[in-house]
Design brief:
By secondary structure, the protein is of the alpha+beta class. The chain has one domain (about 5-135): START domain (Alpha-D-Glucose-1,6-Bisphosphate, Chain A, domain 4). The protein has 3 helices and 8 strands; from the N terminus they run E-H-H-E-E-E-E-E-E-E-H. It has helices at about 20-25, 30-35, 110-135; strands at about 5-15, 40-45, 50-55, 55-60, 75, 80-85, 85-90, 95-105. It has a 5-stranded antiparallel beta sheet with strand order 2-3-4-5-6, with no helix packed on it. Strands 1-8-7 form a 3-stranded antiparallel beta sheet. The longest helix is centred in the last third of the chain and has 27 residues, at about 110-135.
Length: about 140
């Protein structure tokens, strides 16, 4: 069993209402558009979201739709290990904040963790860019 040894929160402000951000980000079909670190492509097959990644085939399970902005998701890696990813969108007036908690597990090197932090940060910037661009179209 892998043990979490560190947690790093990454946050971004998006100039869109929280409901709009949640509606977009809670749809796993949108992951390839903004979460390049997670999915190059994703399909819904036999009741499961299956993504092809540089690591191989992974399975993504999002928590159910909710009124609290919870976007938590579980990713099952090709080796069968499941990673829990806490994520939230909250309202800041007409804007929103998205917070992703990245967890470092036992045995993860500094370089690998730093690369994960950079990948999640890039994904959040992509999410912001897409949603703010949609607002102007």
């Amino acid at each position: 069993m892998r043990v979490v040894t560190e947690s790093h929160q990454l946050a971004i402000i998006i100039n869109r209402r929280a409901a709009d951000v949640y509606a977009y980000a809670s749809d796993p079909g949108h992951l390839p558009e903004w979460a390049a670190g997670l999915a190059g492509s994703i399909d819904f097959v036999d009741g499961q979201w299956i993504a092809d990644t540089s690591m191989g085939r992974i399975f993504v399970v999002m928590v159910g739709q909710n009124e609290f902005g919870v976007l938590d998701h579980f990713v099952t890696l090709p080796d069968g290990h499941m990673v829990y990813n806490p994520m939230r969108v909250t309202s800041i007036g007409e804007s929103s904040e998205v917070v992703f908690s990245l967890r470092r597990e036992t045995g993860m090197s500094d370089d690998v963790f730093a690369a994960d932090v950079a990948a999640v940060r890039s994904d959040l910037v992509s999410l912001k860019t897409i949603l703010e661009r949609q607002a102007h179209n």
